[in-house]
Specification:
Layout (H helix, E strand, L loop, with lengths): L8 E7 L6 H10 L4 E7 L6 H13 L4 E3 L6 E3 L3 E5 L6 H9 L6 E4 L11 H9 L5 E5 L11 H18 L11 E4 H5 L10 H12 L3 E5 L15 H21 L22
Parallel strand pairs: 1-2, 1-6, 2-5, 7-9
Antiparallel strand pairs: 3-4, 6-8, 7-8
Helix pairs in contact: 5-8, 7-8
């Protein structure tokens, strides 16, 4: 990838205490055949992840920009990786805002640092944007993709919150709280985002709906993990979600901002971006 040419996609990865999975998820992201950059934001990790990422950042500045991974012995490409560090843990939303400031790609994808979501879905995730039909794409866990069976009450809570969200946004999304979201870069950078934690998911959904951007959903694979395996979201985040629905729907109604009328042409770049890994 030429240094002065924006990549096809920017993958933003917020990280907090993911030493068990960080090496593998980076290998999987790099394996996707798309021209890309990877922006990693460490959100104050204390389990060794921060040290690993500091080493990775040094390797990214070296020549050749590669790193031999300690757990697997695999060699990781690093020349397209940018690592940022938060001074203290602030939450997923804060880490994403920091990462968004650095992106250069035409399309921005959010990727969690665990192994719950499969980067092999990137091509399908960005397809509606590339075709000129969508400005934003959500990857839904509930539209028929393979998924690990876990946590019935989490499922009920998710559906309840998604239903309430739909009532205030008038978007018939099936999975507001999915990690996988893809955006045209200029849309994402035009949003004033404030939420520091998981309330980010509801805030960005309401602001996208308010602006009138075209939203698509596609099914994605989901390999959920247990709390023993590192899952972090709790019932407190559900309570915060309800507060965010009320807060941002009220702000959206009171601002009375005009809806966007995007005119977007397909990129027509075909498979040009599939040459770099």
């Amino acid at each position: 990838m030429a240094a002065d040419r924006p990549p096809k996609i920017s993958v933003v990865i917020p990280v907090f205490n993911e030493m068990a999975t960080i090496e593998e998820i980076l290998l999987r992201v790099q394996a996707v055949e798309l021209e890309k950059e990877i922006v990693i934001v460490d959100d104050g990790s204390t389990d060794g992840t921060r040290g690993f990422l500091a080493d990775l950042a040094r390797c990214a500045r070296a020549a050749p920009a590669r790193m031999t991974l300690r757990q697997s012995g695999a060699v990781l490409r690093a020349d397209n990786i940018c690592v940022l560090f938060q001074d203290k843990n602030q939450g997923k939303g804060a880490a994403l805002r920091r990462g968004f400031q650095k992106v250069r790609g035409e399309i921005v994808i959010i990727q969690d640092a665990d192994l719950e979501y499969d980067p092999a879905d990137y091509h399908r995730l960005i397809a509606p944007i590339e075709a000129g039909r969508a400005d934003v794409v959500y990857g839904s866990r509930f539209l028929g993709g393979p998924h690990r069976v876990l946590f019935f009450w989490h499922y009920v809570g998710n559906k309840l919150l998604t239903t309430i969200s739909g009532m205030v946004t008038n978007l018939n999304l099936s999975d507001v709280w999915t990690c996988y979201k893809a955006f045209r870069r200029e849309i994402l950078l035009g949003l004033d985002l404030r939420e520091n934690r998981f309330g980010f998911e509801q805030e960005i959904t309401i602001k996208i709906a308010q602006a009138g951007w075209r939203v698509y959903e596609i099914p994605v694979a989901y390999h959920g993990r247990t709390y023993a395996e590192g899952k972090k979201i709790t019932w407190r985040d559900g309570v915060r979600a309800i507060w965010c629905i009320l807060r941002y729907s009220f702000l959206a109604a009171s601002s009375k901002a005009p809806q966007a009328k995007p005119v977007v042409q397909p990129t027509n770049r075909g498979n040009e971006g599939k040459s770099a890994q």
